[in-house]
Amino acid sequence: MNLLLWRHAEAAEGSPDIDRPLTGRGLKQAQRMARWLDQHAPDELRVVVSPALRTRQTVEAWDHAYEIVAAVGLDATPQGLLDAAGWPGDEVSVLVVGHQPTLGQVASLLLRDEESALSFRKGALWWFQQRERNGERQTVLKTVINADLI
Q: Biggest alpha carbon distance in the chain?
């Protein structure tokens, strides 16, 4: 299974938090990452997105079907996000478009088995892969991509 965690691109300040739109820079970040995903994303990919406007605008830069899932929203917990993604699963690859600090907490759980948050840059994508080697399940960090460097 592949689990791709994509933090929403740069958003404007404002209130209410759920309605904050992407900035012009954020739209460019999302478009750059969308081009990268066109070339590299797994063929069969389920995409789940926070209900927040900025996450929806981020994923809409990429021409791919997605579903809005509250469990990956502003109040998401690491375990709730993993459950919504079906991690660890068998064959279905999942892309989650969400928020800090939850994405960083999930990455920390997968890499270090602790919930302290790692920092995700706005618009960045972290790609984890679950594999089996010598009868043991392993989590591999396949790549980290910063949208500003694409």
A: 51
Please give the model's pTM, rounded to 2 decimal places: 0.94
DSSP 72: G
Instruction: Indicate if the alpha-carbon torsion angle 81, 86, 49, 23 is positive or negative.
Output: positive
CATH number at residue 10: 3.40.50.1240
The CA distance from 113 to 90, in Å, is 20
Q: Number of folded domains in the chain?
A: 1
Question: Which residue in 45, 74, 76 sits closest to 62, CA to CA?
Answer: 45
CA distance linking residue 83 with residue 85, whole number of Å? 5
pLDDT digits (tens, 9 = 90+) for 37-83: 999 999 999 999 999 999 999 999 999 999 999 999 999 999 999 99
Domain extent, residue 139, equals 2-149
